[in-house]
Specification:
Radius of gyration: 24 Å
Largest sheet: 6 strands, mixed
Strand content: 5-15%
Helix content: 25-40%
């Protein structure tokens, strides 16, 4: 197989995607390792190697002598074609072994439009697509990540899902597999046993029940399966495993730099944001831990930038102390510090000015909506004045370009809200023309995405706008944003529509996924690869109306496809937040001292861990 691969690599784009051998990668003796896993990322190498979760789990598993974890990524279509023509199965980077040789294949589900790539990778591995068709001796197919919080569209293809954070549960899962393997239990017995692990969802032990009109009535657990699967949470990030020697890619990747995770979770409570729910509660690392981890990264990688990552890095209570400490230690070596997520305020700009002593990167702000009314509906917690103060500070400090992120199609949105985006963008340009030192280089980039209702959020009951309506709003914005200093970017409404279908889908969409894949759907998140026609043909062939998923307004009493997956936040709280949105009422950030009563802390028996100040005491039901 190795010789065949060498012959193919000269015929594909970016052959470095498929060869492995990177600095800090781990290759173990296959025959001397008891249990073998492979981390499968359903996108290309450049995307997957930018994923911190891969680096963390790779380090966790390979830290044990009796285990190994290797990596595999989705081959680009040129490589896939050659692999199929030459009967070359999908293989891991470290050992070049076919995926069928591993004990466990673990997919991460970061984006709904990668689902057809999961099917394609299983097929390229020579494995049956459906879990029920895999016999004894086949690898266990596991999936986790944010999209696992509605696992139903992929339920027929995945043996089990890990719900929540994987650092602890993955090792528990592996050890349970090894113990059962020693007793020669059947595959079904193994899955039934694994379903008893907290945070593990085995779809074959649950049966969806529909009424005569096709409405979901309930999802029935079978046998030992519980009524709901609650997410796993790592309580203390200071003691959690972190990769001190991450793999350094062989080619340029999306995020080509050191990554320091300063915290998990976000307290802002934006009502459209799934990550703000599924990664609760906030858990901050101590500065001492971050400085120690930074020293390991600098000493083992050779990168010249440290990215302080989280959902909202500027909210980390000791962020200035950490930024200053890192720059004092490494700025002399021309190592930059970057903050990928900034609040819309002058503090964040001041922080960015401090962080980017070495070199400046473009600043990005996300006001999300064009009017204060709509920002209050989504609970964004910023004002237009905040944005103008922030960009004015940025232009005065030497930046000549900023990026602004907005969303269209939000619940209760009107054309006045759309026009408000253009008004706000023009005010930013005017601030730049007053403050920017290099007025000839002034550029304001406005990027607009379309609202996608996601599970476990206050907006999970809301429908998505039709594709025609999203296109109309995009055209309205295009007309209003005509200005030589403004660049306007937007997403294909077809992509957003399909994302909504899959995000709100139930188990019946498994047949659609397979049909679309058989019609050639691959890399649907890539503009040059996406073809909605394939999906429409798949929906038509199976008699499924996709609008019944994306455009349906759910009632509070409706059974949702993901109701048996417990993210920790109570349904009562989500209903309350949805009603608050419709009444244009905001909910304060719990870091301000008042618990909004989301229910997560008492439900999961966990407390937020904040390095500066006293943590909020959660309300009890």
């Amino acid at each position: 197989m190795e010789q065949k691969l060498k012959q193919l690599l000269s015929r594909v784009q970016k052959p470095a995607r498929y060869v492995g051998g990177e600095w800090n990668s781990v290759t173990k003796d296959w025959d001397q390792t008891d249990f073998k896993t492979v981390f499968a990322f359903p996108d290309v190498y450049e995307v997957g190697m930018s994923h911190l979760g891969l680096q963390i789990l790779y380090s966790v598993v390979n830290s044990r002598d009796d285990l190994l974890m290797e990596r595999v990524f989705a081959p680009w279509p040129d490589m896939e074609l050659l692999m199929r023509e030459n009967s070359l199965p999908l293989f891991s980077l470290e050992s070049g072994r076919p995926l069928g040789d591993f004990d466990l294949i673990g997919f991460t589900l970061q984006y709904e439009l990668s689902f057809t790539n999961v099917l394609n990778m299983l097929n390229l591995s020579g494995l049956p697509l459906r879990s029920r068709d895999r016999v004894e001796g086949r690898p266990l197919v596991v999936a986790g990540g944010p999209c696992a919080f509605n696992p139903e569209p992929l339920a027929e293809f995945i043996d089990l899902f890990v719900i929540g954070e994987g650092e602890e549960v993955l090792l528990e899962l592996i050890d349970a597999c090894r113990e059962k393997r020693g007793r020669s239990v059947s595959r079904r017995e193994l899955l039934t046993s694994l379903a008893r692990l907290p945070g593990v969802y085995v779809p074959s032990l649950y049966k969806p029940v529909y009424d005569s009109g096709g409405n979901l009535l309930r999802v029935e657990p079978r046998g030992a399966a519980g009524p709901a699967v609650r997410k796993r949470v790592v309580a203390d990030l200071d003691s959690a495993p972190f990769p001190g020697r991450p793999i350094v890619p062989n080619l340029g990747v999306v995020h080509d730099r050191m990554v320091l995770e300063v915290q998990r979770g976000c307290t802002r409570g934006c009502r459209f944001c799934q990550a703000g729910v599924i990664y609760r509660p906030v858990r901050e690392k101590s500065p001492a831990t971050l400085f120690r981890q930074a020293e390991d990264l600098v000493g083992s990688t050779g990168w010249d930038e440290i990215s302080l990552t989280s959902l909202s890095t500027a909210d980390y209570s000791r962020v200035r102390e950490v930024v200053t400490g890192l720059l004092d230690s490494y700025g002399g070596r021309r190592i930059n510090v970057s903050l990928p997520s900034l609040r819309v305020d002058a503090f964040s700009v001041d922080l960015a000015r401090e962080a980017q002593r070495v070199r400046k990167a473009t600043l990005t702000f996300a006001p999300e909506a064009g009017t204060q009314r709509l920002r209050d509906v989504i609970n964004k917690g910023v004002t237009g004045e905040d944005l103008l103060e922030a960009v004015s500070s940025a232009f005065s400090a030497g930046w000549h370009g900023v990026k602004l992120y907005f969303m269209i199609g939000l619940p209760t949105e009107t054309d006045e809200d759309i026009e408000g985006i253009a008004r706000l963008a023009r005010l930013v340009v005017e601030a730049g023309e007053r403050r920017c030192r290099s007025k000839g280089r002034l550029k304001v980039t406005v990027s607009v995405s379309s609202f996608v209702p996601k599970s476990h959020t206050p907006f999970q009951w809301e429908p998505q706008d039709s594709m025609a309506e999203l296109r109309r709003k995009q055209q309205l914005l295009r007309e209003k944003l005509r200005h030589r200093r403004i660049v306007f970017n937007y997403h294909d409404p077809g992509v957003s529509f399909l994302e909504a279908v899959l995000a709100r889908g139930d188990r019946r969409l498994g047949d659609v996924l397979e049909e679309a894949w058989r019609r050639g759907a691959r890399f649907d998140g890539w503009t040059e690869m996406f073809d909605y026609k394939r999906w429409q043909e798949a929906f038509d062939a199976l008699g499924i109306n996709p609008e019944s998923y994306a455009r349906r307004r759910f009632g509070y009493d409706d059974v949702l496809p993901w109701d048996h997956i417990d993210a920790g936040v109570s349904r009562k709280y989500l209903v309350q937040e949805h009603r608050q949105a419709l009444e244009v009422k905001t909910t304060p950030d719990c870091r301000q001292g008042r618990c909004p009563g989301c229910g997560l802390c008492p439900n999961l028996e966990i407390r937020p861990r904040v390095q500066g100040g006293e943590p909020v005491v959660p309300l009890q039901d």
